[in-house]
Specification:
phosphorelay sensor kinase activity, 13 strands, Helix Hairpins, single chain, 8 helices, transmembrane, transferase, Sig_transdc_His_kin-like_C, alpha+beta, 17% strand, Heat Shock Protein 90, 3 domains, five-stranded antiparallel sheet, coiled coil
């Protein structure tokens, strides 16, 4: 039982939510104590100041009566003060003649009063036969008599005790509420965190479709849940992509490897002529070169998706890069009887890798030349649309049916198997776009196809 209790307390103390709440609550409690202390000392100070001022005014007033009526007049005034039943329980008076005998008053003579002066002192005296703690002052009169005036500090003591008790009660209640609040906050925090932990454990166990349930309240945990679910969506997409890529790579490599193996098996080194051997070797070299190109493309896409090439980013003129690519493809366009033009309204600079941007534009132009047909009209344009810069390659070919847009960018997916290629061109373009923070878009031009890259305001500058 003791061991279980110790483990429970240890678990509570190890909770970040509990310690965080407890620390802030203790800070709030300390602040409250400081404020209560200030209130306490201010209140007692004001009360003490009022008592001292009241005693000083009373002593001054009695001194004036002495000046007017002498000692007998002062005696009558003290007796009237005691007889009016106003503050008689708290007012203190004592008039001593030059010999030290009491002439009037409600406190008894005592040795402690002999050393009393006009500066005022807290002193315990006998008030109507009972001990009372009061603030008293003594004034020497011209005839050698002494006038002692004071005020009972019982009210101040009661106020002080009341504030002390209220403060202690407030501290006790606050401490209990602090502890209870820390436990409740820990419980609520643990409940929210436990949901995320269970989902993470399921995902770690292989259930990649699991997601953290969304809360209705748009608080910090809801935002965290949204980000985690987006991350899990991305992980699932990448894992499915890896799985699909593995299947596609296996399929794409199996066919050329099978052809190469069949070719090798048909070669009869003993009886084959030199020309046959050279033709077979040339065919095998072509197959190997194709495999090398596919491997290189896949490696490039992998590097782009990992973000490893971002370190080579620099300010790059997008309009100049597009013009250079168009100039490079002009000979091929003439050979295919296609018209290839570039249009840019103004110089545009983007933060990126010039070689990768040129590669993306080249892939887009190459696809347009392949699929637009003849005679083809291909336009590379760069324009501003609000805060974005849009690079578009448009052609007048047959375009792509909307139901196939979702598959564009899949590795090795080809709309027309009869057209030479590996099905990795637009996949590379999309990877380059993601690396540069740009959006890849497809739209039918009626006729033709429009392939666009949209650079945001953080990436594009005029």
């Amino acid at each position: 039982m003791k061991h279980r209790l110790r483990n429970a307390l240890h678990a509570v103390w190890n909770s970040v939510a509990f310690r965080l709440t407890l620390n802030y609550s203790l800070f709030a409690l300390s602040t409250s104590l400081i404020l209560l202390s200030i209130v306490y000392y201010q209140t007692t100070g004001i009360q003490a100041s009022q008592f001292s001022r009241q005693v000083a005014i009373t002593a001054q007033r009695l001194g004036a009566h002495y000046n007017q009526g002498g000692l007998q007049g002062l005696v009558r005034e003290i007796e009237l003060e005691l007889a009016d039943q106003v503050n008689t329980d708290t007012e203190m008076f004592l008039l001593l003649d030059p010999a030290g005998r009491a002439l009037a008053g409600n406190i008894e003579p005592a040795p402690a009063l002999d050393a009393l002066g006009p500066e005022g002192t807290d002193l315990t005296v006998l008030l109507r036969g009972r001990p009372a703690h009061g603030y008293v002052v003594a004034h020497a009169l011209p005839d050698g008599s002494r006038l002692i005036v004071g005020h009972d500090l019982r009210d101040l003591h009661e106020i002080t005790q009341l504030i002390k008790h209220a403060s202690l009660a407030a501290v006790g209640v606050t401490a209990v509420l602090v502890l209870l609040g820390a436990l409740l906050f820990r419980r609520a925090m643990q409940r929210r965190v436990e949901v995320i932990r269970r989902t993470a454990a399921k995902v770690g166990a292989g259930q990649i479709t699991q997601r953290v349930p969304m809360e209705r309240k748009p608080d910090e945990f809801a935002l965290l849940t949204h980000d985690i679910n987006n991350m899990l969506d991305r992980i699932e997409l990448l894992m499915l992509g890896v799985r699909n890529v593995s299947d596609a790579v296996a399929h794409q490599l199996r066919t050329p490897l099978t052809r190469m193996l069949a070719r090798l098996r048909t070669i009869d080194l003993a009886q084959a002529e030199r020309r046959e051997l050279e033709a077979s070797i040339a065919c095998l070299v072509t197959e190997i070169e194709d495999l090398a190109k596919v491997s290189e493309k896949l490696l490039q896409i992998s590097e782009l998706e990992s973000g490893a090439m971002r370190k080579r980013f620099e300010p790059s003129r997008l309009d100049v890069i597009a013009s250079d690519v168009v100039e490079l493809y002009e000979a091929l366009a003439e050979e295919k009887k296609a018209r290839l033009v570039v249009a840019s309204a103004a110089p545009v600079t983007v933060h990126g890798d010039p070689d990768l941007l040129a590669g993306a534009i080249a892939c887009m132009v190459d696809n347009a030349l392949k699929y637009a047909g003849s005679p083809a009209r291909i336009k590379v344009s760069i324009e501003r649309q609000g805060d974005e810069t849009v690079l578009t390659v448009a052609d007048n070919g047959p375009g792509i049916s909307p139901d196939k847009h979702a598959r564009i960018g899949e590795r090795f997916y080809r709309l027309r198997p009869d057209v030479p290629g590996y099905g990795l061109g637009l996949t590379t373009v999309m990877a380059i776009a993601r690396l540069h923070g740009a959006r890849f878009e497809l739209a039918n031009g009626n006729p033709g196809l429009r392939v666009s890259l949209r650079f945001g305001p953080a990436d594009a500058q005029g």
